[in-house]
Amino acid sequence: MDEELQLNVPLLRRRVPNLTTAAREAGLRAATVSNLCTGKIPVGRAEVRTLVALASLAGCSLDELIIRGSGLRMIETGIKALDLLAPIARGGTVGFVARPNMGQLVLLAELMLRMKKRGFATVFWDPVRDTPGIEHVQAQSDFRHSAPEELFQCLADLREEKDILLGVDRSKVLSGELLALREKLKENGARPITIALVDTKCEAADEEGAYGPLDTLWRFDADLISRSIYPAVDPIASTSTLLEGAFLDAVHLAAQQRAKKLLRRYREMRSLVTAQGVDKITDADLQLYKRGERLESFLAQPFYVAEPYTKKPGEWLTLYETLEDVKRILDGEMDTAEPSELFFRGRLALTP
């Protein structure tokens, strides 16, 4: 939609200091350029030749000049469980809720690596705390800062040309420093900053609303950890505001709802099956149980940052591929496969 297009004004003004004069010399009306910069004229109503001329003046592409999508929309991570069940909102905030040794910092490091593949800049607001696993995050950060002033300048410069993934420790939320940073960064025409909040002290798990308002919540699950299913993100308790509005297409939303319904029923039966065996459930429930077991196995996925430890190459699935394979499990096409055949892999093998 037209209102979802914005001009990257900071980039334009930085690269063309005397914008009015340069625009006039390029044959553009100064008033038109001014109105585009202030938003009085929507970018979608601008003449193509005007936008092309501005991009030429700035020495950039139209994709760099025009920021697409000011509203909430999903960022694909290539991680099956996250994209299906609790997707990230571009420019939103995602909170990690975990106890010690659940892999939250490994997941943040993996997320940073994957976002770099998508052209994001990755920044870490370093809490300067010796926390096991934090070195993985630091290694995947393009920029690391502990001082708020340095961090602000870094973000202000980067967001003129790139989307940013910013990793932040909960201590910065509690101190009020993150709120102060958000206030300073409020400006029009710059690319969004997506914030990932982790809790290096692992105290958030015992508190309601531990981070304040979130667009996405990833709650880690001890049962998944005990069975070495990673990412160990609870498929029922984890959620996203993208699931509450018209932000996902109907195919994604339908698959997500069916998957959560199946996994919820599967989890309800797990304790009974574990204690007394499958003989205690009906044939219909047994079919659901087995499909839930297959889906849970399929949602386990090798990470790029864990390759030295797992000896398995990282896997990236597009959302389309994830939805297609999940539908095959839900529809019973994989009923003859053992859960172990679906575990910790990428795509399912296609039948001839």
UniProtKB/TrEMBL annotation:
It is found in: Membrane. InterPro entries: ATP-synt_VA_C, ATPase_a/bsu_AS, ATPase_alpha/beta_chains, ATPase_F1/V1_b/a_C, P-loop_NTPase. Keywords: ATP synthesis, ATP-binding, CF(1), Ion transport, Membrane, Nucleotide-binding, Translocase, Transport. The keyword Lyase does not apply. It comes from the Bacteria. GO terms for molecular function: ATP binding; proton-transporting ATP synthase activity, rotational mechanism. Transmembrane segments: none annotated. Residues 251-334 form the ATP synthase A/B type C-terminal domain. One of its GO terms (cellular component) is proton-transporting ATP synthase complex. Belongs to the ATPase alpha/beta chains family. PANTHER family: ATP SYNTHASE, ATP SYNTHASE SUBUNIT BETA, MITOCHONDRIAL. This is ATP synthase A/B type C-terminal domain-containing protein. The lineage of its organism: Bacteria, Bacillati, Bacillota, Bacilli, Bacillales.
